[in-house]
Amino acid sequence: MQLKYGCNPSQVFAWIDQIDPTTTPVAVLNGAPSFINFCDALNGWQLVQEARSALGLPAAASFKHVSPAGAAVATDLPADLRAAYEVGDAQLTPAATAYVRARGADPKSSFGDFVALSDPVDVATARFLKGVVSDGIIAPGYEEGAMPLLTSKKGGAFIVMEVDPTFVPPTRESRDLFGMRLTQDRHAHRPSADDLSRIVVGDLPAAAVRDLVLGLCAIKYTQSNSVGFALDGQMIGIAAGQQSRVDCTKLAGAKADTWHLGRHPKVLGLRFKDDITRQQRINWRVRYIEGDLTPREVEEFRANVATPEAPLMPDERRDWMARLDGISMVSDGFIPFRDNIDHARRHGVRYIAQPGGSTRDDEVIDACREYGVAMVHTGIRLFHH
Question: Which fold has domain 26-168?
Fold first, then answer.
C-alpha cells in the first residue's frame, strides 16, 4: 500500500506491506495515512489491547510521534474533570470515557493525535472526536452511525483504520537501518497484575494495582527512557525519550502537576468570550497554569477572557498541589538513584513499579521507606525504540 509520505513530506516514497499475504491485520477505511500515522496506530492498538486484556475495561490511547501523550481505561469521570475536559453534559459511554480521559491528561500534546481504542467505536465516542483536532483512529470496529461522523472530519481526510483483534503478530521483528537489518524477538510480554507480586516495601491497594498495570502497558509503548504517572485509571504524566532517568521523573511530575492544577477552581472559573474555540480555551488554561506568558500572550489572553482574571499565586499553587497524592509511577528501566524517589514524592507519588536491579537498590528502597512509598520490582525492563 502506498502511504501519503514517510516520516517527512520530503520522503515522497513510502510503502507498507503485510508480512503474511494471507492475513490483513489492518484495513484503511478512510483517509491516506503516512508512515508516522501507521507507527502511531500499530503501537497504540497494542497498548489498548493489552490494557483491555489486563484490566477488563475499555481502554484508549492518544498517540503523538510514536509515544502516548495519554492513556486511560473507562473509570467514572468526576464533575471537575468533565469541566476541565470540556465534556459538558454529554452522555459518555465507557469507550468515550476512556478516550476523554486519555486525551485530557495532556491536551496540549494531544493536539492532532492519533487515537487507539480497544473497543468498537460508538456514536458517543465519534461525536466527541468530531469536536477535537485529531488525525485518525484505529479500533476493532465501528458501530452504525459512527463512521459518517468520523469520515466527515478534516474535510473527509480523517484517517480511519480497522484492526483485526484476533491477529497474532510474528514472534520476531526486523528493522532496516543504514544498510543493516536488525532482527529481534518481539517484546511479547503482556503486563498484568502478576508483574506486581514482588513487593519490596509497603503495600498496594487495588486502585494502585490498576494504575500500575495501566502504567506498565503505556510505558511499554513509550519511547525510552520513559516514566509515567497514573491516577484513577488514567495516565496523568508521561515523559518519553529522555536520556536521564531523573529527568523523566521530573518531566512526568511537571505534567502531572499541570493536570492537577487544571482542576483548581481559579482555572475552571476562567470565562472566555463566545467566539473562543474549545481548543483555544484548553490551550489558554494550560498557559495560565504554566504562568510564564510572554507580553504578547498576556495581551491575547486578556483579549480572549470575558471577565478579568487573577493569576494563580504561589501559595495557592502550593496549597492545591499539597492535595495531590496516591499517584502510581512506573519506570521502563531500573531506578538508579534515590533522587528519583525524592522528586517523585514531591508530585504525590505513593506507589512505584520498576524492574529493579540497580547496584543502589537498597538506597532506593530506603528512600521509599522514608517517604512511606510502596515499591514493586517487576524484574521486567520495558525499553521501546
Answer: Cytidine Deaminase; domain 2 (3.40.140)
